[in-house]
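User: Design a sequence. Structure:
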């Protein structure tokens, strides 16, 4: 018994001298929230959400905000802390999340981050890339094109100028599409060519855990989640947000499709099928993004929790 006690003490001493961020990533509906809560309870620590859709307090069901019981199971940060009328971008999140992590690490050397928004995860773990300044008039013109001709034409333009970015960003998000296009047009180079800056030095070590499954399983879980959202009142949630549908935060999967239903353009069944289809496409883009990161250790979503903890401990030590 004595040797095992000595080992435990040594591990704790090592952990105290290191600041650790356990980052949990993967496609939507794969089980990231459940794993993050288990890890937070295991290490007696807190969770930072890097899901950019869950920042907004008016959006709950359609963004799969953790249930009340889940939020109570471990302290969470950056969930429903903003209004859809607030302007909040990835740079703001990087600043706020790093500041929050400094406070969390004063209480516990280990913190958890979970989310499927790849750019937001990267902002915290590696820092944002540098992009040269471009003429503001380009953004103005692109916004006018969006208003006059719709998002599809801008998406096609990005596909022609930078297919790599087209296949990895949230292509249904007008703000992301316009940001990529203004860099392409303003510099004459692909947006993706600027995603090569050296990583920022962080005061913590990141241990990245990825959850995955066969594509058919992911798609089936997505379909089930959408059905559950509808059962839980997504239609009423979207209806209450109709006066704000022009806001960028609401131009997202699960909301824009049901706005089409309320506008009389689509039947309800077709709108639901489009939510499922667009969510599947989103999951595919998430995996494309995360698979570029060779530091992520991938686990099947059914992996025993003890095996994941064993891997994390091996990386801490």
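Assistant: Done.
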């Amino acid at each position: 018994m004595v040797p095992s006690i000595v080992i435990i003490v040594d591990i704790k001493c090592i952990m105290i001298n290191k600041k650790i961020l356990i980052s949990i990533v993967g496609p939507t509906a794969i089980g990231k929230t459940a794993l993050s809560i288990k890890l937070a309870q295991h290490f007696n620590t807190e969770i930072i959400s890097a899901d950019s859709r869950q920042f907004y307090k008016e959006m709950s069901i359609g963004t799969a905000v953790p249930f009340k019981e889940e939020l109570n199971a471990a302290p969470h940060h950056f969930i429903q802390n903003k209004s859809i009328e607030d302007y909040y971008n990835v740079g703001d999140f990087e600043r706020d999340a790093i500041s929050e992590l400094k406070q969390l690490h004063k209480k516990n050397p280990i913190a958890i981050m979970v989310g499927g928004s790849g750019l937001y995860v990267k902002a915290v773990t590696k820092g944002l890339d540098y992009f040269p300044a471009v003429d503001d008039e380009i953004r103005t013109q692109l916004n006018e094109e969006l208003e006059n001709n719709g998002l599809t034409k801008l998406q096609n333009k990005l596909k022609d100028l930078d297919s790599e970015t087209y296949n990895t960003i949230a292509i249904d998000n007008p703000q992301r599409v316009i940001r990529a296009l203004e860099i392409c047009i303003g510099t004459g180079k692909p947006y993706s060519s600027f995603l090569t800056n050296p990583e920022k030095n962080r005061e913590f070590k990141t241990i990245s855990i990825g959850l995955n499954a066969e594509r058919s399983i992911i798609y089936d879980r997505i379909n089930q989640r959408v059905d559950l959202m509808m059962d839980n009142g997504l239609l009423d949630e979207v209806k209450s947000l109709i006066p704000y549908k022009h806001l960028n935060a609401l131009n997202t999967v699960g909301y824009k499709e049901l706005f089409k239903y309320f506008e009389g353009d689509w039947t309800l069944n077709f709108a639901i099928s489009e939510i499922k289809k667009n969510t599947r496409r989103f999951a595919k883009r998430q995996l494309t993004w995360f698979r570029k990161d060779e530091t992520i250790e991938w686990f099947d979503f059914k992996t025993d929790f003890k095996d994941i903890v064993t891997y994390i401990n091996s990386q801490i030590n």
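Residues 132 and 164 are 19 Å apart (CA to CA). The first helix runs from residue 2 to 16.
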